[in-house]
Amino acid sequence: MSLMHFDEEQIRKVFRAMDKSQHGGVTAKQLCVVMKKMGTPTSESEARDIVQAADKRGTGMITEDDFVSFMRERAMEFTRQLREAFQAMDTDKSGFLTPSQLRSGLAKQGMTFSNKEFKDMLDVVDVDKSGGISWEEFLSAMQ
């Protein structure tokens, strides 16, 4: 299975920026503040759920290694979901999406585009200009 681009060093930098006190861990409350600054307001309850899911040692805090592991798992899960979506749209099982398969699949998800918007999107997504969207092109476009 292909994995979305996962830059561990960048993830570690994000963690270190969150861990302002440099205690080696981030609490749910600190996570709330960071998520809000990132434009993703998160309730304390949601942050506690994230900390609980990521906290491998049961300390009530996310360590740097916990954070990296959690983000890697999320990237793998997102990639798996994208793979499933790609395979569902690939109705002829060719390994490529035709423009009509892509448009139909996106429409089933409530995403509709004007002809111009769709053509512009295809111009970006179909990197090799083959007329079909490969898994790699699809994955790259979703990053």
Automatic annotation (TrEMBL):
Gene Ontology, cellular component aspect: organelle
Q: Name one GO molecular function term.
A: calcium ion binding
- This protein's UniProt keywords: Calcium, Repeat
The name under which this protein is listed is: EF-hand domain-containing protein
The protein's organism comes out as Macrostomum lignano
Q: Which SMART domains match?
A: EFh
Q: What are the residue boundaries of the EF-hand domain, all occurrences included?
A: 6-41, 42-76, 77-112, 113-143
Q: Which sequence ranges form a coiled-coil region, renumbered to this chain?
A: none
Q: Which Pfam families match?
A: EF-hand_7
